[in-house]
User: Which sequence fits this backbone?
């Protein structure tokens, strides 16, 4: 006991508050010099507060809606006015043909298509219980659920206000008639009729996994060589910056395609996700997205000074991609400024492309509006990476 007490006392005597404070100051100075780490300390909490506080919304409103009104009666006009006044529907097209509206629904330009048949008002007056057809892009069930519920309430309100006599639901209830809606809203959930969340989550999960793994792997590529001292040997070789960047990307492209294949097999045989599109088209889209993701990793590795900074920058990129791409929360539920940021991210366009191919069977005319932003992103990101690499050469 005495020996243990003497040992503890010796350690207490050896502890110097001045030396300890010097170490504390040294760590603060080190953090101050590491600007990227210091920016992460401040930036990540601010980013999370802004994203979760303002950008994330699981109840999207003002969803683009096309109306095909072959019936021009007073009730039809009242119903369309009710849609316009609703918070959930934004009438973006009223004079499209049915084929044009179907094409817009497949491209994701509209969320709903409301079809009012030509004989609707005549059958309504006769008490024949006609139907309005509402087709919804249900690839993301969360984006349409609340709006479809509000649609039923909207129809009941319009019927109670505009219909007279026994057609009026309130008049029927007051007269003790059997309750019956004067017309039916027939909802057709396109591309995901059972509102299965697997159809939405699993394809989007492919992009999330590829983003997370490939950005981290390539983000460490350049910094690892810099820390190991092999960068000097690479810089001494007669290679151009674009050769270095593309050469480092190629092995990871193969890794990305292998990961995508594993996810596709699991999606088909474990979760029964439908496969309505072309397999070669799908793999070409995956190749483009993998290339875009790898250029991000190479760019971050060119900017970062060490592997820790590369990981921090990768996480800083991954967080907005996860939250603003439409993977976890409906894209149209976000404010305009968040949608602008989301449109820059490759994962946003990949989510639309992969769901369009698997669930909708989209072909090149429907896919091209989402492909060219990925190609532009690759060119810009590679240009930034080459610029920072040339600074390293200097």
Assistant:
């Amino acid at each position: 006991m005495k020996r243990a007490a003497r040992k503890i006392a010796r350690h207490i005597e050896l502890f110097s508050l001045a030396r300890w404070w010097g170490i504390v100051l040294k760590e603060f100075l080190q953090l101050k010099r590491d600007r990227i780490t210091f920016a992460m300390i401040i930036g990540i909490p601010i980013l999370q507060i802004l994203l979760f506080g303002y950008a994330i919304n699981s109840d999207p409103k003002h969803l683009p809606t096309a109306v095909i009104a072959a019936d021009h009666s007073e009730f039809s006009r009242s119903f369309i006015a009710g849609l316009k006044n609703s918070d959930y529907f934004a009438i973006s097209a009223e004079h499209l043909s049915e084929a044009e509206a179907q094409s817009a629904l497949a491209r994701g330009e509209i969320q709903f298509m409301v079809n009012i048949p030509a004989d609707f008002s005549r059958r309504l007056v006769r008490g024949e219980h006609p139907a309005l057809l509402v087709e919804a892009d249900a690839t993301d069930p969360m984006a349409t659920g609340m709006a479809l519920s509000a649609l039923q309430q909207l129809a009941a309100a319009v019927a109670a206000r505009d219909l007279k006599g026994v057609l009026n639901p309130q008049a029927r209830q007051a007269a003790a008639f059997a309750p019956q809606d004067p017309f039916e809203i027939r909802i057709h959930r396109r591309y995901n009729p059972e509102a299965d969340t697997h159809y939405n989550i699993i394809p989007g999960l492919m992009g999330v996994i590829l983003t997370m793994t490939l950005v981290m792997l390539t983000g460490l590529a350049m910094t690892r060589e810099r820390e190991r001292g092999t960068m000097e040997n690479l810089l001494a070789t007669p290679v151009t910056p674009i050769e270095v960047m593309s050469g480092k990307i190629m092995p990871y492209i193969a890794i990305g395609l292998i990961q995508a294949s594993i996810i596709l097999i699991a999606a088909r045989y474990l979760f029964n996700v439908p496969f309505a599109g072309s397999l070669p088209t799908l793999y070409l889209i995956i190749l483009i997205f993998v290339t875009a993701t790898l250029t991000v990793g190479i760019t971050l590795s060119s900017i970062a000074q060490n592997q820790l900074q590369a990981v921090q920058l990768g996480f800083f990129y991954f967080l907005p991609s996860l939250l603003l791409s439409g993977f976890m929360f409906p894209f149209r539920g976000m404010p305009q400024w968040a949608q602008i940021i989301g449109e820059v991210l490759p994962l946003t366009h990949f989510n639309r492309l992969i769901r369009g191919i698997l669930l909708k069977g989209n072909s090149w005319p429907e896919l091209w509006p989402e492909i060219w932003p990925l190609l532009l992103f690759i060119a810009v990101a590679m240009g930034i990476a080459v610029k920072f690499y040339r600074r390293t050469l200097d």
